[in-house]
Write a structure and sequence with these properties.
Elements (H helix, E strand, L loop, with lengths): L1 H26 L14 H33 L6 H10 L9 H11 L5 H12 L5 H6 L6 E2 L5 E2 L11 E3 L4 H14 L4 H12 L6 H4 L11 H13 L11
Antiparallel strand pairs: 1-3, 2-3
Helix pairs in contact: 2-4, 2-5, 3-4, 5-10
């Protein structure tokens, strides 16, 4: 009897160990490389770009798969509204008040790539090449805020009366994915999406340089912010990454 109890106890312990391992595998926080270990300049930049470029490219591939689904669903005489509803919710398209055709147009405007060059320039700009406090502690490489108490990291220089925090992400890729979704659905970046749609209509490449003109509201610096991004893209020759963008 005692042997049987011991066997059951060992099985329970083993099960708990497996659960803990699974938890850490799926939920434990991941970190980007410590970019501060590289000398500031070409070496740090190379490490930064080589780490983030594949992440952005992979997410763009996923976005293009969603875009293809939309195009397929909308190509029918009667658009498949059921398959579009989930995407409409995710991308904040009010499918209830729009006609099926208008919903398709709105989704195609929003479900599209963010050029790798643009994402790299913004990540470098917002995170001080991955060395900022928020990048190191919260995997936040794009300066994204959140507005629920405890949702992130409280800025040390937050103005009196302000309640925002800087979002804390489980992994760097989560930060990139959140940034790209923000670009694709927030009203502030409608000018960027308009530029992108125009490029699509004219069968021209969607480049990071072109889309910087639609980002004046991303920063309090306004037009100066866009100019800074264009300078970073040109100086670091980041447009080369757009050649492989879908």
């Amino acid at each position: 009897m005692k042997t049987k109890k011991n066997t059951v106890l060992l099985a329970i312990v083993a099960f708990i160990v497996v659960l803990i391992a699974v938890w850490f595998s799926f939920f434990a926080k991941e970190s980007a490389p410590d970019f501060s270990q590289y000398p500031a300049g070409p070496e740090r930049k190379a490490a930064f770009f080589s780490y983030f470029a594949p992440i952005v490219s992979e997410l763009n591939t996923e976005i293009m798969e969603k875009r293809q689904q939309i195009q397929t669903a909308c190509s029918k005489d009667s658009p498949d509204t059921a398959s579009l509803k989930k995407l409409a919710t995710a991308y904040r398209v009010d499918g209830e008040s729009l006609s099926p055709a208008a919903t398709c147009d709105a989704l195609l405007d929003r479900v599209d790539i963010v050029p790798v060059s643009l994402a790299l320039a913004q990540a470098a700009n917002e995170s001080a090449w991955g060395t900022s406090r928020f990048a190191r502690q919260g995997n936040n490489f794009f300066g994204q805020w959140c507005f629920k108490k405890g949702c992130g990291i409280v800025p040390s220089s937050r103005d009196t009366g302000k309640t925002h925090e800087v979002a804390d992400f489980r992994a760097p890729s989560d930060s990139v994915e959140s940034y790209m979704l923000n670009i694709n659905r927030h009203d502030a970046y409608a000018p960027l999406r308009d530029i992108r749609s125009s490029l699509r209509d004219e069968d021209k490449p969607v480049s990071g340089l072109a889309l910087t003109w639609g980002l004046n509201k991303y920063s309090e610096r306004g037009e100066e912010y866009g100019e800074e991004l264009r300078s970073m893209i040109n100086y670091n020759e980041l447009s080369q990454y757009d050649e492989t963008t879908p």
